[in-house]
Amino acid sequence: MTSEDVAASIPAHRMAGRLADPARNAVVESLLAVGLQRDNDFDRIAGMAATTLAAPVALVSLVGRDRQWFKSGLGLDLAETPIEQSFCAHALESADDMLVVPDATADARFATNLLVTGRHNVRFYVGVPLTVNDQRVGSLCVIDRVAREPPTAAQVATLRALAAIVASLFALKEGAHRGAIASAALVHEEKRRAIALEAASLSSWIWDVETGQVECDESLTVLFGLPPRRSMAGAAFFRAIDRRDARRTNDAFRRAIADGDDYFGEYRVRGATPSRWLAARGRVVERAPDGRPLLVFGVNYDITRRKDDEERQTLLLRELNHRVKNTLATVQALATQTVRHARDPREFLGAFSARLQALGAAHGLLSDHEWRNISLRELARTEVQPFDDPRRTRIAISGPDVTLTPDQALGLGIVLHELASNALKYGALSVPDGSVALGWQRAGRGAERRLVMRWSEHGGPPVEPPSRTGFGNILIQRSLAKVLDSEIRHEFRGSGVVADISFPMTE
């Protein structure tokens, strides 16, 4: 055997040429990704190749680094073979654009090949390399089981033309496959984006400035109170903005996109009940050569809850400022009147501190309820509990559920504190067997509805009207002065103190 014959017999997988080229193998991998199932298009071309040479076998192969696969295999019951058995691998390495083997048993490269010595009995082979993306990736080949003369010039021309069609078909199918993958990825990305936007309560849009048309999520039109649509004239959205915000919003939006700034705005939706606030953010993503904006991308989202919170916070701060002023005036009056009626400093300190605590308890309740209406029962328990016996309830509270305004709560809180404080010092709560009944009920109808409350002491020492009017009594009479049309009747009966309180109901 000559040195040339020895070189020719080296297994194909050890060849150092195209088979080892990473760029070529990358193209093969992309074609394999389309799938190796048999394809009617390739079968038809293989059939034409077999007919051209009147041969029983025609194949369309893809050749990898270590293996070859058959995309079409007319007349051969194999789907793939190891690279060591591949005739097509040699076709790829051929200096010509065709490999012809008239008799494989007489060719040192193939004489011991299992396809030749085994049941397939390959003798004659003609293979034309397939070039895709400038890389030889496989071949269109024709095989016979008997030795034959090389093909004629006309047959060679036909095989080359068919091979070019196969290569183009591979490229088209691989491109379609990549397009399908990209389309599926785009669908997945769109779904992911939609879920993300929905989770963040965002509605996206694209405004074509030239046509004035807006492409958007259907949720955007719903936010604006418009019929659900994915495309609508931009003017329709501007018309859906509340008149109070329309001009400001329109001017700010057009100024921002003209100057190249991001747009950020907040506005109310026209006709929405209750009021609906939206926020918008937009950016120019495409401009004409002269700088005119062409496409604007943006999002809208509902900020009604935030606006409601801000409005409530503003009202609370305003109410708090009002209450602080009133409270300071009340504290000043408490201090002045307590000093005026106190016999010594210690009496002043105790009385003033207790009255401040009563005021503080009412303020605490109002703060817990954000200075909105509070429960009368909760207020009553808070004010009288310090004067009751924790081991045996001596102040009985009864009445329906009623809510009080802040003014009612502050005034009534001081009244209840003074009544309970006096009862503990001089009245029913000053003796072991004394008790107090605190109850209320609704009276009247419609605009004449009133809350009627009674404080009634029992079992205490005999009661006589005081010789002088103390500040506690003055507080009882005047603490509800801010509640229009309120009435307090404070009586010192022999059987015990009775206080009747009434004022208009607002609930």
Structure description:
Helix content is 43%, strand content 24%. It has 507 residues and is of the alpha+beta class. The chain folds into three domains: 3-178, GAF domain (Beta-Lactamase, 2-Layer Sandwich); 202-302, Beta-Lactamase (2-Layer Sandwich), CATH 3.30.450.20; 311-504, Heat Shock Protein 90 (2-Layer Sandwich), CATH 3.30.565. A six-stranded antiparallel beta sheet has the order 3-2-1-6-5-4. It has a six-stranded antiparallel beta sheet with strand order 9-8-7-12-11-10. A five-stranded mixed beta sheet has the order 14-16-17-19-18, covered by helices on one side. Strand 7 (202-208) and strand 8 (213-216) form a beta hairpin. The longest helix is centred in the middle third of the chain and has 47 residues, at 153-199. It is elongated and about 145 Å long. The chain starts with a helix and ends with a strand.
- Judging from the principal axes of the Cα atoms, what is the shape? elongated
- The percentage helix is 40-55%
Radius of gyration: 48 Å
Main β sheet profile: 6 strands, antiparallel
Number of helices: 14
| Second rung of CATH, namely the architecture of the largest domain | 2-Layer Sandwich
pLDDT < 50 runs, ≥5 residues: 1-15
Q: Could you name the CATH homologous superfamily of the largest domain?
A: Histidine kinase-like ATPase, C-terminal domain
CATH class of the largest domain: Alpha Beta
Total discrete domains: 3
CATH topology of the largest domain: Heat Shock Protein 90
By DSSP, the count of extended strands is 19
Strand content: 15-25%
Backbone structural class: alpha+beta
**In which order are the strands of the major sheet placed?**
3-2-1-6-5-4
